[in-house]
Write a structure and sequence with these properties.
Elements: E1 6-7, E2 17-18, H1 29-40, E3 44-48, H2 50-53, H3 60-69, E4 74-78, H4 84-91, E5 101-106, H5 113-121, E6 126-131, E7 152-157, H6 169-178, E8 183-187, H7 193-200, E9 204-208, H8 211-214
């Protein structure tokens, strides 16, 4: 199968299938990305490389093509980085466009506390604190090391992703109590505009959305 955008559901990556979006035809990464950005009037896109996250080589060519197609867009890229060196290897493949990519270091991917400290304190970075009902790897002790959290933290509840289960507001609030000086971004569970409004009343400054866009359950943002 050629590279495509998939529809995530509850973090069960082996069962993800190509997205069927009401925003556009097909599942081509550039076509889908453009449709999502246009619907949200956004210039920042979160990209999770499922191949890299499941142990395959990262899809550098796809990311590079997206950067070339959208020269005004910035990316947050989660490609299962084990450490800072893994990001630097991939970064070199983007050339000058790498300045528009911020690495997302995930708690389930970082291999140890020393690697986490270096990755999260050596330059622009986003930390994704990943959780679900079943235990996830946290070999770097990211959840219990708020002192090394970077300026932006994603609260990623994989059980809520694509589930229509509603946003996990409690986890965002708990993280905010630990480090109220940081920016928090929720992820997973948004069902409609009411959920967005509820999330906006909490400490999260933004929320990652996908399924709710593909199903046209929130109206387009007017720039």
């Amino acid at each position: 199968m050629s590279e495509c955008v998939v529809r995530a559901c509850r973090g069960d990556r082996a069962r993800y299938r190509p997205v069927a979006s009401q925003l556009c035809e097909g599942s081509d990464p550039i076509v889908v990305s453009r449709a999502m950005l246009r619907h949200c009037a956004a210039r920042l896109l979160y990209v999770a490389d499922l191949d890299a996250l499941t142990g395959s080589p990262p899809q550098a060519e796809v990311v590079a093509a997206l950067l070339a197609a959208e020269p005004d867009v910035r990316l947050w890229l989660d490609a299962g980085f084990r450490d800072l060196a893994a990001w630097h290897v991939l970064r070199r493949r983007f050339g000058a466009a790498a300045s528009r990519v911020t690495p997302v270091f995930a708690s389930e991917a970082l291999v140890g506390p020393a690697e986490a400290r270096e990755a999260l304190t050596s330059g622009p970075a986003v930390l994704s604190l990943d959780r679900r009902r079943e235990p996830l790897p946290d070999r770097a002790d990211c959840w219990s090391s708020p002192r090394i959290w970077p300026e932006t933290v994603i609260a990623m509840n994989l059980d809520r992703v694509g589930s229509d289960g509603g946003p996990d507001l409690a986890t965002v609030a708990r993280l905010h109590r630990l480090r109220p000086d940081l920016r928090y971004v929720g992820a997973g569970g948004i069902r409609d505009a009411d959920d967005i409004a509820a999330a906006a009343r909490g400490p999260a400054t933004a929320w990652l959305v996908a399924s709710v866009l593909h199903d046209l359950r929130i109206p387009p943002v007017r720039p």
